[in-house]
TrEMBL record:
Domain (BPL/LPL catalytic): residue spans on this chain: 68-252
GO molecular function: lipoyltransferase activity
Highest taxon listed in the record's lineage: Eukaryota
Family matches, as InterPro entries: aa-tRNA-synth_II/BPL/LPL (IPR045864), BPL_LPL_catalytic (IPR004143), LipoylTrfase_LipoateP_Ligase (IPR004562)
SUPFAM superfamilies: Class II aaRS and biotin synthetases (SSF55681)
Taxonomic lineage from the root: Eukaryota, Metazoa, Chordata, Craniata, Vertebrata
Taxonomic source organism: Periophthalmus magnuspinnatus
Protein name: BPL/LPL catalytic domain-containing protein
């Protein structure tokens, strides 16, 4: 799902969700009424939410609570600006957490695998649910490519062996990821319609240098917006609604879902809260190591030196840290005290800054100034 290098962005306020297909509002009878009908039990939904964690929770709720035996469900959704990483990824290696924090862009970790993707209102998301027996990512992507070909025959779009969708043989417009449980599955993909390319570039770059990890890395791809090649392509939900209906042979209205409605989706609020939590977003990061060189200077004496930083991290926590400063710039006993304070802390700049404040205040003059500088330099590594 990675989209890093952006080609020719032209952001537009296209109404990619202005669906002209017949719509209904979802009730707790919607799924129950499928039973006993003459068709195969396929349903098509559109989320009313633009909150990334609510929409990810909706995917998980459907997978967990809906009987998908011999049934396909199709969900269309969008979210406000967010960065979404795969289940087994390292956020410090995938995105600029500092830039995201300053821009108010949240980070989410989904339960499926795959790479990192930038979301905003110019990015359409499509989720295909089925039982494992009906799981077929190639067929799902055919829904997307056929929809685009019908809407704009001049577009050269095709699915790749990596299960991406590319335009003109080189620009990625869609990436895929999936989750399979014992009986159910879902496959979701993105579709770049009119995303903010400058924002995408600013956040999809590493926060921290010198990371060594077995986490799943994203694959850098050149991407483009569909509107850069077909400016009048706007009603994306309608074309995918009809393409899904045609591919899987059904006649069903498009039902609108409100994933914040606990009466329809019991427990979904707790699922969304878990996805928002630090323990899930950062704490599920596979263990990793950071090895990097720090540049230090005393702002008063202008004396410069370097330091070697080695950090071991597990579950997003600092399990061990070693700092070796050259030229006796700062007493090693004090550096060891700093390392002791940081051990066991979250790898989080705000938490670390609070943790070291007492130690810094206990020193004076040059020692305090240099300890403060070292602490801030270590914190800067955290993004």
């Amino acid at each position: 799902l990675l989209m890093h290098t952006f080609k020719g962005c032209a952001v537009q306020n296209s109404k990619i969700f202005s669906c002209s297909a017949k719509t209904t509002h979802f009730t707790n009878q919607t799924l129950q009424n499928v039973e006993g009908t003459g068709w195969s039990g396929n349903l098509i939904f559109q989320s009313k939410s633009t909150d990334i964690h609510q929409n990810l929770a909706l995917e998980d709720w459907i997978e967990t609570n809906v009987d998908l035996t011999n049934r396909r469900l199709f969900l269309l959704w969008r979210s406000h600006a967010a960065v979404v990483i795969g289940r087994h990824q390292n956020p410090w290696a995938e995105c600029d957490l500092g830039a995201m924090w300053r821009a108010g862009v949240p980070l989410a970790r989904r339960r499926s695998g795959g790479g990192t993707v930038y979301h905003d209102m110019g990015n359409l998301n499509l989720t295909f649910f089925s039982c494992r027996k009906l799981y077929d990512r190639q067929r799902n992507l055919k829904v997307v490519t056929e929809a685009l070909r019908r809407a704009r025959p001049e577009l050269d779009v095709r699915a790749t062996e990596r299960l991406d969708i590319v335009l003109n043989g080189k620009y990625k417009i869609s990436g895929s990821a999936s989750r399979l449980s014992r009986k159910a599955s879902y496959h979701h993909c993105t579709l770049l319609h009119s995303a903010d390319g400058s924002a995408l570039q600013s956040v999809l770059r590493p926060s921290t240098p010198g990371i060594h990890s077995n986490a799943t890395p994203s694959v850098v791809s050149s991407v483009t917006n569909l509107t850069d090649h077909a400016p009048s392509l706007t009603d994306m939900s309608t074309v995918h609604f009809y393409s899904f209906s045609t591919e899987f042979g059904l006649s069903s209205p498009l039902s609108l879902l409100d994933p914040s409605d606990e009466s329809l989706f019991p427990g979904i609020g707790c699922m969304a809260s878990e996805l928002r939590s630090w323990d899930w977003t950062f704490g599920k990061t596979p263990k990793f190591t950071i090895e990097t060189e720090l540049s230090l200077s005393d702002d008063l004496t202008l004396e410069h030196t370097t330091a070697q930083l080695h950090i071991e991290l597990k579950n997003g926590l600092i399990s061990s840290i070693v700092i070796t400063v050259q030229d006796q710039w700062l007493q090693q006993t004090l550096i060891n005290e700093l390392c002791d304070v940081l051990t066991g802390e979250r790898f989080c700049p705000h938490r670390v800054a609070a943790a070291v404040s007492t130690l810094i205040k206990s020193e004076q003059d040059e020692t305090q100034r240099r300890l403060h500088k070292l602490s801030n330099t270590v914190i800067s590594v955290m993004g």
